[in-house]
Specification:
seven-stranded mixed sheet; alpha/beta; six-stranded mixed sheet; 20 strands; 406 residues; globular
C-alpha cells in the first residue's frame, strides 16, 4: 500500500515486473556487486486517474555525472525538438518584450539550441553534469540542478520570470511534482505557460508498450492525471497535442487559470480517455494480462530461434529494454549482444541481465539472422537506414504492439 502521489488516496500495485536494476545503469563486471535493484510495480489511482510506479530508486542513482542518455543520438529527435521549439516560439514567445524561456531536463541542449539561434534569453536546468556540459559546448546556458520551488526562486532572482517553461521526457521522471508546480508558480509570468510532453498512457495501453515503465518514468500521464496534478495549484490545461515520438506521446500546455482560452482539443481528449477506459482500474488489469502474454510470446520466439541455431542480436540498448529483458529474463544466452551508437554504453553490459553492448559497426560487419528492435520508438528512422540488413536476409523482431517477425 502507498498513497497516490497526486491526490493522497491509498493505492496498491496491480502487477509486478519483478526485480529491476537502474534502467540506464550500464556497467562493467567490476561493478556487478554494487548493482542496485528495486521492485518495479505499477499502480493506478482510480480517484485521480494517475498511473505511477510504487517504488523508485533515489534520483541521484539515476541522474548523475555518468548519465548515459544523450538526446543527440537520434537525428529525428533533434529534428523533433526543432519543431517543438518552433511551436513554443510561434505561439507563446514571438512578439513579447525580452522573452525568457526555461527548459527542465535540458540534457545536451538539443531543444534550447533553437532559441540561441534566435538570440532569445534561455536557461536549461539539468541535473546530470555530463550532458549539461555538452549543452554548454553548443552555447546553451545550463544550470546543473534539480528543478523545484527553491531552484525556481533562484532563477527569478538572477534572470526574472519566464514566459515559457518547457520540458520533454522529463516531467514523468519527477516524483515530487508538487514541488515542481510550486516552482512553476514562482517562475511563470502571469500570462506565461508551461508545456511538457511525455509518453502517453493511451498509447501505452493500446500497444501494450509496457517498456515505457521503468525507474525513471515514475508516471505515465494522461490528460486526466495532469489536470488532477496541476489544477490545485491554480493552473488550467489549455491545449493538448499528440506526438508520434517515443512510441506515442502527448504535449500538455498549461496557463494560469482564466488567463487563456482552452482549445477544444482538451475536452475531446478527456472524452476519448473516458471511452478508452483510462480512468478505470479494470483497464489496467487487462493491460497486466496483455503484458504477461507479450512476455510469454517473446521468450518462446527467442527460445525457438536459439534451438534453430539462429543468431539474434538487439538493436538499441534503450532504457526501455531494461524492463523487457529483466521482466522476461532474457540474457546473453538468447541475445548475443545489443548494438548501440552511444559511446558511454559501448563495451559495457546491460543492467541486470548483463548482455554485452557493442558499437553499431559490429552489427553492420556481420549481420545477424534476427535483430530485436529495442529502439522500436525510433523504428521509422532505423528502418529507413537499415535496408541492407533486410536485403541480407535479416529480419526484425518486434514486441510492440504484438510480438512479431518482419
Ligand atoms: P531512447 O529510446 O531512450 O531514445 O534510446 C535510444 C537508444 O538507441 C540510444 O541508446 C541510442 C540508440 N540508437 C541506436 O543505437 N541507433 C539508432 O539509429 C537510434 C535512433 C538510436
Ligand atoms: Zn490519486
Amino acid at each position: 500500500m502507498m498513497n497516490c502521489r497526486t491526490c493522497g488516496h491509498p493505492i496498491e500495485a496491480f502487477m509486478s515486473y519483478g526485480r529491476m536494476p537502474i534502467a540506464n545503469g550500464f556497467l562493467t563486471p567490476a561493478q556487478f556487486d554494487q548493482e542496485k535493484f528495486f521492485e518495479l510495480a505499477p499502480a493506478f489511482c482510480e480517484k485521480c486517474a494517475t498511473f505511477q510506479i510504487v517504488d523508485q530508486p533515489d534520483a541521484q542513482d539515476m541522474f548523475h555525472e555518468n548519465y548515459a542518455f544523450f538526446t543527440r543520438t537520434s537525428a529525428w529527435m533533434v529534428k523533433h525538438f526543432g519543431t517543438y521549439a518552433e511551436y513554443a516560439y510561434e505561439n507563446w514567445v514571438a512578439g513579447k518584450t525580452d522573452p525568457f524561456v526555461v527548459e527542465l531536463g535540458s540534457n545536451d541542449g538539443a531543444m534550447l539550441e533553437n532559441f540561441t539561434k534566435r538570440d532569445i534569453r534561455h536557461l536549461g536546468v539539468e541535473p546530470s553534469a555530463n550532458v549539461a556540459a555538452v549543452a554548454r559546448e553548443h552555447g546553451v546556458n545550463s544550470l546543473c540542478a534539480f528543478f523545484g520551488e527553491e531552484t525556481a526562486k533562484k532563477i527569478v532572482t538572477e534572470h526574472g520570470k519566464a514566459d515559457v517553461i518547457m520540458a520533454a521526457n522529463v516531467m514523468c521522471h519527477i516524483p515530487d511534482l508538487k514541488d515542481v508546480a510550486r516552482g512553476f508558480d514562482a517562475l511563470l509570468k502571469d500570462d506565461g505557460v508551461f508545456m511538457f510532453e511525455d509518453p502517453y498512457l493511451g498509447d501505452m495501453v493500446a500497444k501494450t508498450s509496457y517498456d515505457q515503465i521503468y525507474d525513471e518514468h515514475v508516471y505515465i500521464f494522461s490528460a486526466h492525471s495532469v489536470k488532477a496534478m496541476f489544477e490545485p495549484f491554480g493552473f488550467e490545461l489549455i491545449d493538448v497535442l499528440a506526438q508520434t515520438t517515443h512510441g506515442g506521446s502527448m504535449r500538455y500546455v498549461f496557463g494560469r487559470k482564466d488567463q487563456h482560452r482552452a482549445h477544444a482539443r482538451v475536452t475531446d481528449l478527456l472524452d476519448a480517455e473516458i471511452k478508452q477506459g483510462l480512468t478505470k482500474f479494470e483497464t489496467f488489469q487487462k493491460f497486466a494480462e496483455n503484458c504477461e502474454t507479450s512476455k510469454r510470446e517473446l521468450v518462446q520466439l527467442l527460445k525457438e530461434l536459439k534451438a534453430q541455431g539462429k543468431r539474434v542480436v538487439g538493436y538499441g540498448a534503450t532504457s526501455k529494454s531494461t524492463t523487457v529483458l529483466n521482466y522476461c529474463q532474457i540474457g546473453p544466452d538468447l541475445i548475443e549482444f545489443i548494438s548501440d551508437t552511444t559511446p558511454i554504453k559501448q563495451g559495457k553490459l546491460t543492467p541486470g541481465m548483463h548482455i554485452p553492448v557493442q558499437p553499431y559497426d559490429n552489427f553492420k560487419v556481420n549481420y545477424p539472422d534476427y535483430a530485436v528492435l529495442f529502439a522500436w520508438n525510433h523504428g521509422a528512422e532505423i528502418r529507413a537506414k537499415e535496408d541492407a540488413f533486410r536485403e541480407s536476409g535479416g529480419q526484425w523482431i518486434l514486441y510492440v504492439p504484438k510480438v512479431s517477425v518482419e
